[in-house]
Amino acid sequence: MKLETRELNWAGNLEYRASQLLYPTSVEQLQEQVRAATKVRALGSRHSFNGIADTSETLISLSKMPEVIEIDAKAMSVRVSGGTTYGALADALEQAGFALHNLASLPHISVAGAVSTGTHGSGEAHGNLATAVSAVELVLADGSQLSAKRGDPQFDGYVVSLGSLGVMTHLTLDIVPSFDVQQTVYEQLSWDKVLDNFAALQASAYSVSLFTDWSGELVGQTWLKRRVGDGLVDDIDQGKFGGFPATAAMHPLPGADGAICSEQLGAAGPWSDRLPHFRMDFMPSAGDELQTEYLVPREHAVAAMAAMRQLSPVLTPLLLVAEVRTIAADDLWLSGNYGRDGIALHFTWKPQQQSVEAILPQVESALAPYAARPHWGKLFAATAADLRGMYPKFNDFIALARRLDPDGKFRNEFLQRNIFGA
């Protein structure tokens, strides 16, 4: 369709510039649309906060493509259509007795979009969502199809690819047997004790999230998601970190309704209902927020958090909430955790983009000693000149993209600024 109305991202901070938005209903129709376009980008669930999915000509949404969820119990894998949401996939897997190793905070995001941007989930032993990918299927710039599987040459460049190689129509993901999780929220842990014992805290659950505004001496909330049967020692209840367990369902934002969040208070339930922070049948907010995130090597976790606390006078007035999570290392070329275990420093900002963008250079300067990599789908100030040295396979990725898309059909201003302008 020709764009006759304003098309916005989920947060409402970006209006897409494309002249048309197409909704193919088959791979064959998608091939024709890509072949005919001069400039084209795939549009996912619109949860990016920058122009990564934008283009000057043609946007293509996979939301009307046939939903595919094909479970192979023998191979312990699932083939899924790229436009499928993680919530829909998780429900189907759970009903069949299977699970993914990780889920992001929001189950509303599309599989292809999350994988392509290195979106991660949480847990010190768990790689990001893209690490589950064992095969990808793409429609290339000339309309042809390409499949690549784990073990193929350059496969690790195909997964977190920022939409620059082609339209990711289907992915095959590793699965595991289903498992139950208990989620408990603790309030007002001591920052001093958390920083003194950060490794022990992160090891105390399958997934741990710290929520803070970076001010004061106390962490606002700590969310622990424990796999039932893991038998982990509850150092928090023993007072090692201070604080106390919440007695009602909590929301990461102080005063917000905890009813829209995944179930807490230690009640055991399926992984699909506990690993995300929010329930699939509720949107966590109206989207009236902005987000930034940086991935920092695990060995710098304490120093990086201390640096953010020192920046509290700058950060806190613009924050809705910040979150700290851990992610395991991987081999995916443009992943924020390529080659290193890490933590994620996530910032949910008030919808004041000009003010937020004005302080991002200061945030990145404070984190520069700790080799912080920005999340590709969120707001950041760094450019290709800054990013090139952060990714050992950066030039290899550029070569791969130029081979598959020599005329730059899938490139846009975002990619030129942050990848190809190096």
TrEMBL record:
InterPro entries tied to this protein: ALO_C (IPR007173), FAD-bd_PCMH (IPR016166), FAD-bd_PCMH-like_sf (IPR036318), FAD-bd_PCMH_sub1 (IPR016167), FAD-bd_PCMH_sub2 (IPR016169), FAD_lactone_oxidase-like (IPR010031), Oxid_FAD_bind_N (IPR006094), Vanillyl_alc_oxidase_C-sub2 (IPR016171)
Organism ancestry: Bacteria, Bacillati, Actinomycetota, Actinomycetes, Micrococcales
Family annotation (PROSITE patterns): FAD_PCMH
Chain ranges of the FAD-binding PCMH-type domain: 14-178
PANTHER family: D-ARABINONO-1,4-LACTONE OXIDASE, L-GULONOLACTONE OXIDASE
Matches recorded under SUPFAM superfamilies: FAD-binding/transporter-associated domain-like
Superkingdom assignment: Bacteria
Protein name, entry field: FAD-binding protein
UniProt keyword Oxidoreductase present: yes
Pfam families: ALO, FAD_binding_4
Keywords: Oxidoreductase
